[in-house]
Design goal:
6-stranded mixed beta sheet; Metallo-beta-lactamase, Chain A; single chain; 14 strands; alpha/beta
């Protein structure tokens, strides 16, 4: 499978510039697959209604040229070519662009769908924006399975394509997940918002504001930090056959593009 690394939303937070790192996967038989989809055209048309108060902290640029649907058009693809969207979680900066692909099926952990769509707590009701799925996409939910991917409980999404693996990694949200993709010459592990700075993997200093943002946004801080420790162990024990990225670090996106 060929994997493209896209920035589908630049955000200028008070302490850093973030990207929205999206994977575009070209499969042999299943058409196009997106891992997350960043912001979309509907978000640009109605940021108050779709993004809510979080836009004042994230301060997204909301440039139509950065949307996944426009970037795919530049590669010669139509919206209906995207058949599947695999979401790390359901925050707006990760699925705002979903409405641009109305034919795509959303794949997500059952825990994330429960917290965002079915039985949200009051904190989750304040966090998630139901308007992002008001176009009524088909949704496939996955419970944790007993398979293993490099030591993590995982579910290979063979109904989409072999080599795409959903890995429950809660903490940031109730049902947050990472997604591993076999790109042929290496695996790409998209960790979503499991961490916000590469220092969580390589041991370099994590700026205080990044750490504060992780904790403020976490559904369960203890679980999040435990998963960060497991990811750091995987990073130390792996070689060039694995590329690990998070959703928002611009340096990780640059490295991924340069080595794709």
């Amino acid at each position: 499978m060929k994997v493209h690394h896209l920035n589908c939303g630049t955000m200028r937070l008070p302490f850093a510039t973030y990207v929205c790192h999206v994977l575009l996967i070209e499969t042999a038989a299943a058409g196009l697959v997106l891992v997350d989809c960043g912001f979309g055209l509907a978000d640009i048309a109605d940021p108050a209604g779709r993004l809510g108060p979080s836009r004042f902290m994230n301060r997204p640029i909301l440039d139509p040229a950065e949307t996944a649907v426009r970037q795919l058009a530049g590669l010669g693809y139509a919206p209906e070519d995207v058949r599947y969207i695999v979401a790390t979680h359901l925050d707006g900066d990760h699925i705002g662009g979903m409405a641009d692909f109305p034919h795509a099926t959303l794949h997500v952990t059952a825990a994330e769908a429960l917290g965002a769509m079915h039985e949200p707590t009051w904190q989750e009701r304040n966090r998630f924006r139901p308007g992002l799925w008001a176009h009524r996409p088909k949704i496939v939910e996955y419970a944790p399975e007993g398979e293993s991917w490099r030591g993590f409980t995982a579910r290979e999404l063979t109904e989409i394509s072999p080599g795409i693996v959903l890995i429950p990694m809660p903490g940031h949200t109730r049902g947050h997940a990472a997604v591993a993709v076999d790109a042929g010459h290496r695996w790409v592990l998209h960790c979503g918002d499991a961490f916000l700075h590469p220092g969580r993997l390589d041991g370099s200093p994590v700026p205080r504001m990044h750490a504060l943002a992780e904790n403020l946004l976490a559904h369960d801080r203890a679980v999040m930090h435990a998963n960060q420790a497991r990811l750091a162990e995987l990073y130390r024990s792996s070689g060039p056959d694995l590329l690990m990225v998070c959703a928002h670090d611009p340096g990780m996106l640059e490295d991924a593009v340069a080595t794709a």
